Amino acid sequence: MRKVLVLEDESSIRSFIVINLRRAGYDAIEAETGEEALEKLREHPDTAVALLDIMLPGIDGFEVCRRIRATNSRIGIIMLTARSQEMDKVTGLMTGADDYVTKPFSPAELTARVDALFRRSGGEEPAAAGEIRQPPFLLNTQNRTLEKNGQRVKLTQVEYSIMKVFMEHPGKALSREEILDKVWGRDYFGELKIVDVNIRRLRLKIEDNVQNPTYITTVWGFGYKWGL
Ligand code: CA
Residue 75 and residue 86: Cα distance in Å, rounded? Predict the structure, then answer.
């Protein structure tokens, strides 16, 4: 199923999004409030992507994002932000969103973002059996899970994809563009900053000391590298 949840309290914007998603072949599920969105997700646990508006009556989009991520690391989450909410973007990504779209957005832009996340969320990716073992890490490419010292590290699908790129290229300096291409897809036209934000969050989860990262190291002015 190609289910996408659309949480937006303004009915005109919601209809615009829903019409365009349906045209692109998605099954759009509508919600007007955060509470309703969480309820709809319980009814449709196979939802692949959620679009979350931030300013809402009742609980806001960030809180909805946090509550979804508490139990679901697989779903792709895109925050819908207003132009004046620059800081909200970063905060949104730090609470577990995978991407954001700034209003007003074109139908093509929105669909491209949803397509990219839909692929990442496992909809169409062939399951390659196997493991990549690089102590203390063990990446299981069949279950799409990561362990550090035998303990499961909870990752979003985007974070998992970044880890896979790194672990497949140990010691190689990867540019931010290269990471963006490999993880989000070549047809993605977002900003490079999304790479940095996701890596910052990934470091919080996997590094021994976030102040002095030794697994994901920064290659200044270029990108990142797996290992020192
Ligand atoms: Ca709103």
Answer: 24
pTM comes to 0.62
Distance CA 51, CA 6 (A): 5
94 token code pair: 């730090």
Single-letter residue type at 200: R
For the stretch 130-159, pLDDT in tens is 888 888 999 998 889 999 988 999 999 999
Give the CB-side neighbour count of residue 157, counting CA atoms within 13 A: 21
pLDDT tens track for 174-186: 999 999 999 988 7
Of the chain, the end-to-end C-alpha distance in Å amounts to 42
8 A C-beta contact, residue 159 and residue 98 = no
Helix-then-strand count for the chain, H and E: 8, 12
Triad 160, 164, 166: Cα angle to 5°: 115
Give 60's contacts (C-beta < 8 A, 6+ positions apart). Answer: 34, 54
Centre of ligand 1 to C-alpha 54, Å, is 6
Residues with CB under 5 Å of ion ligand 1 are 9, 53, 55
Distance in Å, CA 43 to ligand 1 centroid: 23
> Is omega for the bond preceding 104 within 30 degrees of 0, making it cis?
yes
